[in-house]
Each structure stands twice: as structure tokens, then as C-alpha cells.
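User: Can you help me understand a structure? I only have the sequence.
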Amino acid sequence: MTRQIAVVAFAQSGHRRTTDELSEVEMLMPVLHEVLARTGLKTADIGFTCSGSSDYLAGRAFSFTMTLDGVGAWPPISESHVEMDGAFALYEAWSKLLTGDADTALVYAYGKSSPGSLRDVLTRQLDPYYLAPLWPDSVALAALQAQALLDAGDTDEHALAAIGARSRAAATGNPHAQLRGPVPRGDHLVRPLRTGDCPPIGDGAAAVILAAGDRARQLCVRPAWIRGLDHRIEPHSLGARDLTDSPSTRLAAERAGAFERPVDTAELHAPFSSQEVVLRKALRLGEEVVVNPSGGALAANPVMAAGLIRIGEAAARIHRGASDRALAHATSGPCLQQNLVAVLEGDPR
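Assistant: Let's start by predicting it. Here is the structure, written out as C-alpha cells:
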């Protein structure tokens, strides 16, 4: 890469179980205003805008066009949208800035999971011929993965409970988290997963601003430079995969340069405690790495925004000097089907 791109600002909403009183636009607008205010930019100063969301959550086609009201109708903007987590929208914006067509980009994502049955909605991601007709929901599929890990001896239920407890304890310092502090393990939701192993259902939004080169240094005291970014996908058929491993995560991390030097922080998009076990192994993370200091997806999991939040949280730690080299991960699909890895670094102190 001949052009250096950095995350220069990050903002997110407070994540809540329901936001019945707010539309998607009303939920998103304060986040957009905050992220722009952090840099002093106005909408007219943004060279490219890209968003991530899902029409399936809203239950209507092209619902993402409504949230453009939050960006503003004037002046005209260069805009794009991905029907995925906002982390993948960030990938598109990063690629756009690398071409030199823009110097700044606004990336935002949002999701309201509360209006419907999220477990049923997510079945629409499955293979329509073999899996979807069986209606296995997202928790049941995650439980299959967890059971495979238990059978392989990679973890046990006590270790999974410890992951949930650690994540929610870390979230006590995160004012945006939906769940904070001690959370009971609870009953089995789908064996072997208990309620404490599963993410909360909630609504939320997030946004980041990217900038290139000297523009990034003008907008941020300590930019979080994207040293590498890559995403890969597993076979669509779950029966063709080893659910105890994630080759796509490992390959994405390798291509992003994650294994060239150690990282001190990792923000992993692991909605289920068992998925952190898989990701730690694929990413070769030792105990010295601080994992999910924000609480991760077990503390707040706004669908379509949670992956972008992992990148934003990792960047924010670099901005305030709590990290020098961080890894951020985002996933989409059942059982870690699609995986994106970003490596972020701050300037030497």
C-alpha cells in the first residue's frame, strides 16, 4: 500500500434492548453528529460515505435509504451501501481511499433487532436448499459449534462461563454496553450454551471516520493507522467445515499482517463465548493479549454494527494511548462463516 489510511474518529450509541420510541434515523443521527464533531468536519467535507445494515431487520426493502436523511440531502454526496456488517462497509471505504478518489470517508452502521425474532431472521443467511428449510436458528447452530469444541477437548462449560464473566466485567468501564457486571450463567438455552454464553439482543449504531496521510494527522492527535485489512469466507455448507477451526480468519489475519509482530489488544467479534475459543486459536492470541476490553459482543451485539464497533473500539484505544498495535475482527453468517481482520497501529510514542 502506497497510501496510509487511518481511523481518526469513532462514536457509538448506547446499546439498549429496545428503542421502540426511535426510528433508525433518530437512533443514528446523534452518532453521526458526534463522530463529525470529534474531527471538526462537516458533511460537505466527507469525500465518500458508506453504510452497512440489513433490510431483513427492518422488514422492508431499501430501508437503508431512509437513514440517508441522517447524513443530509445537501450537498450531494458520493455514497454506497453494503447489506452486511459495517466492518465490511469500512473495507469498501478503505479501498476507495486507497485509490486516491477521496481523502476522507464516513462509515456508519446500525441495527434494530428488537422488533422481530432475531433467531428466525438470521436463518435467511442459510443455504436455501438444504439448511434453511430445516429452520435451525442462530443459537442452535452456535450450540453445534460449541458442542464440537467440547467433544474435541478444546474447552469446557466452566471455561465458556469464564469468558462470559470476563467480558461483562470488562464492560463495566464501557458506558455504551448493554450488559455490564456480573451476569448469571443461567439455564441452558440450547445445550451446551447457557444464556450467559449468548449475546444480548438489542438496538444500536456506530460510525467511524477514515482519513488518508497528512489529512489524518490534521484531524487526530494519534491516528489509528490501518496497516492491513483482509476478509475471507468459509464454505457455505456447514457440513463441509470443521467447526472447531476458522481457516478463513487465519488467512485473513495472515494477509493483513497480524502475524508479523505481536499485538497488545484484540477486539474480537465473538457473539457466543465458544466462538472466542475458535478465534483465539486461529489468531494465535496468547494470554498476554488483552481481549475485548470493551466487553465485546457478549456485552452489546447490535446486529450489523457490532463488527464495526470492534474496529472502532480498537482504534479508540490507540487514539487515547492505551494500545500501540491492535487487532480487530468482524464476522458475519453462521458459525463464523465470513471473517474480516484489521491490524491497527499508532505512531511511536
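Now, to help you interpret it: The radius of gyration is 19 Å. The longest helix spans residues 24-39. Let me know which part you'd like to focus on.
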